[in-house]
């Protein structure tokens, strides 16, 4: 029971570290959260990226256009199966681009669905799927 609590906490910490790495643009920390054979995808699109380096390249390129982002996670659910685990949580992600005429902010909410693997260096994402559920604000913030 104690090991399960330790694992659950470490997995939630990985999800929080992901959000922090995005917002601080700490690409090295972000890359360290993924296994080498990881897959990252955004549901509803053809966007499936494989491998930690490619995932970081895709995310860093996407976030480069923003003046700021702010990702919040909640409602974590973790199920541990030995050295593998499943995790889901909700997110809200604020995106800011200053100077846009129809508004500088775009807020999105959705869910992360994850699979993780225990490694000698800790829990690492082997699959992260992002599902958008709702949004509000100026879509040009994220599309142009």
TrEMBL record:
<protein>
    <recommendedName>
        <fullName>SnoaL-like domain-containing protein</fullName>
    </recommendedName>
</protein>
<dbReference type="InterPro" id="IPR032710">
    <property type="entry name" value="NTF2-like_dom_sf"/>
</dbReference>
<dbReference type="InterPro" id="IPR037401">
    <property type="entry name" value="SnoaL-like"/>
</dbReference>
<feature type="domain" description="SnoaL-like">
    <location>
        <begin position="3"/>
        <end position="129"/>
    </location>
</feature>
<dbReference type="Pfam" id="PF13577">
    <property type="entry name" value="SnoaL_4"/>
</dbReference>
């Amino acid at each position: 029971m104690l090991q399960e609590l330790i694992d659950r906490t470490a997995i939630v910490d990985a999800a929080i570290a992901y959000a922090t790495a995005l917002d601080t643009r700490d690409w090295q920390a972000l890359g360290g959260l993924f296994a080498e054979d990881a897959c990252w995808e955004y549901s509803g699109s053809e966007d499936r990226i494989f491998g930690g380096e490619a995932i970081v390249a895709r995310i860093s390129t996407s976030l480069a256009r923003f003046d700021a982002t702010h990702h919040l996670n909640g409602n974590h659910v973790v199920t541990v199966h030995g050295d593998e685990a499943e995790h889901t949580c909700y997110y809200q992600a604020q995106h800011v681009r200053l100077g846009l005429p129809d508004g500088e902010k775009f807020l999105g909410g959705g869910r992360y669905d994850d699979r993780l693997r225990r490694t000698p260096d800790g829990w690492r994402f082997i699959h992260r799927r992002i599902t958008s559920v709702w949004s509000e604000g100026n879509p040009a913030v994220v599309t142009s």
